[in-house]
Design brief:
By secondary structure, the chain is α+β, with helices and mostly antiparallel strands. The protein contains 4 helices and 5 strands, in the order αααβαββββ.
């Protein structure tokens, strides 16, 4: 009877160890929504630190370059998709975008909605709506954008960016 009890106990220990290890592997391979939300919060923070501070444009470009993985594909709403020649070319275009928004009185950006679809352990498709808000709290700019993120050793990076008309917003079919 003691041998049977010891055998059962050993089997339970082995089974629990295997189950715990399997659960840990699944947890390591999952994408945590909080990670993606934090990435996009940080992405907007890069822009928001720049508004009203032209002296921070170099810092803006450096911080933005840390959020993307080259080559990055951009697909503007009314032009053909393109892959910028360099990170400098990419960030220069976005610095000009900030300047255009400032011309409309925008002082900060906010997300209205963020939707994510995990495609694999290292790929996430995001469909976000962002607004540009003036100092008076008025919405001066609104856009929807698709992002493809890729997980690297340094965290999540944007590999594809495609803004589109927010009036044509669609949902990603998340379960």
């Amino acid at each position: 009877m003691r041998i049977l009890s010891a055998t059962i106990a050993a089997c339970l220990v082995i089974a629990l160890t295997c189950a715990t290890h399997a659960r840990a592997e699944v947890a390591d391979n999952q994408v945590d929504d909080r990670e993606i939300a934090a990435f996009f919060d940080g992405y907007l923070a890069v822009y928001n630190r720049s508004f009203g501070h032209p002296e921070r444009r170099t810092q803006f470009r450096e911080e933005l370059s840390a959020k993307v993985l080259m080559p990055i594909m951009q697909s503007p709403p009314s032009r053909a998709p393109r892959v910028p020649d360099s990170i400098e070319s990419f960030t220069q275009g976005f610095a000009a975008f900030v300047t255009r928004l400032e011309g409309k009185g925008v002082t900060r950006l906010e997300w209205v909605s963020r939707e994510y679809q995990v495609l694999s352990v290292n790929k996430v498709l995001a469909n976000n709506v962002g607004i540009g808000i003036t100092a008076d709290g008025e919405v001066a700019y609104e856009t929807a954008s698709l992002y493809l993120l890729h997980r690297t050793e340094g965290g999540w990076k944007i590999v594809m960016f495609s803004p589109y008309d927010h009036d044509k917003l669609f949902q990603l079919g998340c379960s």
